[in-house]
UniProtKB/TrEMBL annotation, chain A:
It is a multi-pass membrane protein. Its main location: membrane. It is found in: Cell membrane. GO terms for biological process: D-alanine transmembrane transport; L-alanine transport; L-isoleucine import across plasma membrane. It comes from Albimonas pacifica. The chain crosses the membrane at residues 12-34, 41-61, 67-85, 105-123, 150-170, 199-218, 238-262. InterPro entries: ABC_transp_permease, BCAA_transport_permease. Keywords: Amino-acid transport, Cell inner membrane, Cell membrane, Membrane, Transmembrane, Transmembrane helix, Transport. This is Branched-chain amino acid transport system permease protein. One of its GO terms (molecular function) is L-isoleucine transmembrane transporter activity. CDD domains: TM_PBP1_LivH_like. Belongs to the binding-protein-dependent transport system permease family. LivHM subfamily. It holds the Pfam family BPD_transp_2.
UniProtKB/TrEMBL annotation, chain B:
This is Amino acid/amide ABC transporter ATP-binding protein 2, HAAT family. PANTHER family: HIGH-AFFINITY BRANCHED-CHAIN AMINO ACID TRANSPORT ATP-BINDING PROTEIN LIVF (PTHR43820:SF4). SMART domains: AAA. GO terms for molecular function: ATP binding; ATP hydrolysis activity; branched-chain amino acid transmembrane transporter activity. Belongs to the ABC transporter superfamily. It holds the Pfam family ABC_tran.
Amino acid sequence: MLLLQQIANGLMLGSVYVTVAVAFTLTISILNFLNFTIPTLFMLAGMVGWSLAFWGLPFGISGPLPWPLALAGGVVVAIVASLIVERFTFRYLKTRYGDSTEHAIPLVSSLGFLLILENLVRIEHGSDAQRFPGPSADLTLSLAGIHLRVPQVVSLAVVVLLVLGLVWMMKSSRIGRMLRAIAENPDAAGILGIETRRVVPVVFMLTGMLCGLAGALFAVNYGEVSPQMGEDIGSKAIAGMVVGGLGSLWGAVAGGVIIGLIEMMTIHWAGADTVQATVWGALLITLLIRPQGLFGHHAIGKGKL
Amino acid sequence: MSEAWLETEALDVTYGRTHAVRGVSLTVGEGEIVAVLGANGAGKTSLLRALQGAVKPSGGTIRFMGRDLTNAGSAERVRSGMMLVPEGRQIFVSMTVHENLLMGGHLRRDQSAVEKDIKAVYERFPNLAERRDMKATVLSGGEQQMLAVGRALIGRPKLMMLDEPSLGLSPLFVEKLFSLIQELNGEGLSILLVEQNTHMALEIASRAYVLELGRVTLQGAAADLAADAALAEAYLGAEPA
């Protein structure tokens, strides 16, 4: 019974990884860009949400906000931050310095944004973890002896809907086809009148939204936020993405869940200290046996959605 | 000559220090087939890239249907009726045949009319209809060219610009392609045809321009150019005229 409980917990944790892994996958497969600001956007939503719930709007405009409103504010800030990152890493530097160092420029500058944003939050709020005043932990559902906290169940449902919506969008909508066209052949997309610079912000908006929601869900479910909360999630999400297969949305989903389960199983059988070893061990084994990941098509290089 | 739809004046394209297109002035009239000929590196593809909006001209103007499109983005050009069928087809191989066709009409809001146009393309190219839900990779080179033309047609162009459409096709398919171009032209589409296959291009074109090192060195009626000794020497060289 305890094991089943841990599996349930693993799924919940995995759903946070899934959301972040899907965000990584989108930018990698469409823009061929490993966006290092993703963990920061995740953190930003959580920390801004906490700040709004604890202090209220800045400059004394309002007192503490109710937590759902505060988290919504956090998500909005994550989206705006993501668009700012697009403006100053991807668009500005890429158009200014051209294509010879195409991949390095956004990569390195997004790493810069990670450090800047993380430290800004640290200056403002200090580096201590803060308790997030979310919904009561007493709200539980009991199902065949497993206790599920209601917020967890809701989060899982949100993630499932989010991923299904995203998959539908990429497959069947006009904007999804445009994104796939840019992913495959930006020149041909341009010939048909798709202007990359107008479509790229959509990717960053989605990234901000996914990371923001993941950060909000994390704050609600684990009741704690800190300026470092993105680091661990970011690396686990990357691990999940690689295990699942680079460039595949379903791969990111499967990988995120697998990493969440591995983490919980490790805690169950071996204790929390061994988590890093099993997670990265799983990644290594995947790379050795099946370098393209579970659902990936290519071992290395630009993925396709 | 009928009224000019496309008109470039003293068009210049430079990449860094390379001056790819120098002062090219050309026109394509309503219902015309105009050929642009020239050797590799003569600036033909650069000219098309400038017309399509992928590169900004460093000088000169581009007008289409009376509008100045010199600094317009590619979306605006497609909307106003200019469509390029690029060299090497450039279809989306990760998409189905049907999705490729949909991409041609992605700027259009009239979805039911797009579906109708796609149906018309399927009637024109039954091979594509049979493979509509297959990935475009399964198509042969000729079928891919048909798909590229079909995709462009879904954009409802007034002027279709074709960049080396015969490249890599079997002689049989080249024949088919050129009669297709004539057929489309007969339906009212103006054509700007960039070709290395000088003979066939001059056969279907009404007028032609010859580019050399980015400049127009010869222009005139296609029939006159076909008879021109200088052109024959320069471009028709090895083949009998």
